[in-house]
Amino acid sequence: QFHLSYSDKESLEREPRGESQQEVLRRAAKDLPIYTRTMSGAIRYCDRCHLVKPDRCHHCSVCDKCILKMDHHCPWVNNCVGFSNYKFFLLFLAYSLVYCLFVAATDLQYFIKFWTNGLPDTQAKFHIMFLFFAAAMFSVSLSSLFGYHCWLVSKNKSTLEVFRAPIFRHRTDKNGFSLGFSKNLRQVFGDEKKYWLLPVFSSLGDGCSFPTCLVNQDPEQASTPGGLNSTSKNENHLFPAKPLRDSQSHLLTDTPSWLETSAKAEKGKVGVNNPALTMENET
């Protein structure tokens, strides 16, 4: 649904670059659940794949295709790490770290005997030394990498989003997709805890739309980015909000923070100055 139709592609190729092309993309993206934009405020579009980029999607120059919720391209696995395999990548790091720690721990006693001349004078003792150093070094590197990605999961960020914060309709927000530690964890590992440590895909959502702390996701009423209801029913929204899938919408229920956000939004409407509302009216 994010790919342009044949007529839209022709219109986009005929139009000169600039506002005319953006108008074509706005029409193509009017019913899509898109809340992020480029640094210039334009709709994110991939010229190589000919599609409107979903939120958190990026084009990989190595794989030469757009990757949903792209984290990075990993040369060690010769593949991109994104929505479809991020849980498997985390488990791969965890399994490898546990294995290296186990090897280093079981080899430690023989490593000590090597330095105290407690081993027979054979070539095998050099294998023991090499095995311990290799396991110890991999343990250090894997623990740092695994700890970093655990932090990313807790903040609901990708590696690309750490270096360049996502830009929403009103402003840049580095924590725009964060829903709290528990819900961030469930977005990657799912609701069934029995599958968390197993190499079984259990991530929530479809990789194309994500709940954010900036968007009111009430399926019963129209919503706008920034958690603010439109003050005019005739106002033209470039990105009308769209309800999320059932597997994602329940992440936003029964959370006091959403009530506080709504209260702050209502307070801003009657206050002296509300920057988010001002930008909404200017748009």
TrEMBL record:
Keyword Acyltransferase appears in the UniProt entry: yes
Cellular component, GO annotation: membrane
First-listed, main subcellular location of the protein, grouped into a coarse class: membrane
Highest taxon of the lineage: Eukaryota
Annotated membrane topology: Multi-pass membrane protein
Cell compartment(s), UniProt: Membrane
Domain Palmitoyltransferase DHHC: 43-162
InterPro entries the record matches: Palmitoyltrfase_DHHC (IPR001594), PFA4/ZDH16/20/ERF2-like (IPR039859)
Transmembrane annotation, as ranges: 88-106, 126-148
Biased composition (Polar residues): 221-233, 249-260
Chain residue ranges for the region called Disordered: 1-20, 221-283
E.C. number(s) listed in UniProt: 2.3.1.225
Swiss-Prot/TrEMBL catalytic activity: L-cysteinyl-[protein] + hexadecanoyl-CoA = S-hexadecanoyl-L-cysteinyl-[protein] + CoA
GO MF annotation, one: protein-cysteine S-palmitoyltransferase activity
Record keywords, A-Z: Acyltransferase, Membrane, Transferase, Transmembrane, Transmembrane helix
PANTHER family, A to Z: PALMITOYLTRANSFERASE ZDHHC16
Domain notes: The DHHC domain is required for palmitoyltransferase activity.
Entry's family note: Belongs to the DHHC palmitoyltransferase family.
Protein's UniProt name: Palmitoyltransferase
Species this chain originates from: Cephalopterus ornatus
Gene label: Zdhhc2
